[in-house]
């Protein structure tokens, strides 16, 4: 006659067979959020690369990026509503347009 399994062994086998413990439930519920976050990060990197490429291809954002501290995103954000680059003769003119310095 075979001896019955010990109760602790049966309990462990039950939890391994049926994934209904709390940790497993949390992990399963978090998987869609993790996938969504990973996809959002990938899209953000794609957009960053596209903005950098466009900023280098256009004259005014490329000119703005020559200023220390101004990168492709800032240059593109400034250039979008800005008048044509020919309007500005000096860096002070840009600063005045941005209201960072007084105009002459």
Summarize the structure.
The protein is mainly α and 104 residues long.
Return the domain count.
1
How much beta, percentage-wise?
under 5%
What is the straight-line distance between the termini? 104 Å
The succession of helices and strands, N to C, reads: HHHHH
Q: Count the strands?
A: 0
Radius of gyration: 30 Å
Largest sheet: none
Helix content: 55-70%
Mean pLDDT level: 81
Unreliable residue stretches: none
Alpha-beta content class: mainly alpha
Q: Main traits of this protein?
A:
single chain; 104 residues; mainly alpha; 5 helices
Report on this model:
- Helix 2 crosses helix 4 (about 70-80).
- The protein has about 100 residues and is mainly α.
- It has helices at about 5-15, 20-55, 60-65, 70-80, 90-95.
- The protein has one domain (about 10-95).
- About 10% of the residues are buried.
- The termini are far apart.
- The longest helix has about 35 residues, at about 20-55.
- It is rod-shaped and about 85 Å long.
- The chain is about 65% helix and about 0% strand.
């Amino acid at each position: 006659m075979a001896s019955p399994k010990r109760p602790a062994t049966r309990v462990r086998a039950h939890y391994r067979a049926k994934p209904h413990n709390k940790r497993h439930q949390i992990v399963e519920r978090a998987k869609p959020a993790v996938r969504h976050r990973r996809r959002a990060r990938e899209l953000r990197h794609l957009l960053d690369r596209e903005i950098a490429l466009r900023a280098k291809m256009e004259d005014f954002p490329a000119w703005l990026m020559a200023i220390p501290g101004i990168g492709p995103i800032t240059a593109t954000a400034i250039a979008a509503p800005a008048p044509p680059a020919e309007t500005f003769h000096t860096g002070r003119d840009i600063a005045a347009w941005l209201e960072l310095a007084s105009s002459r």
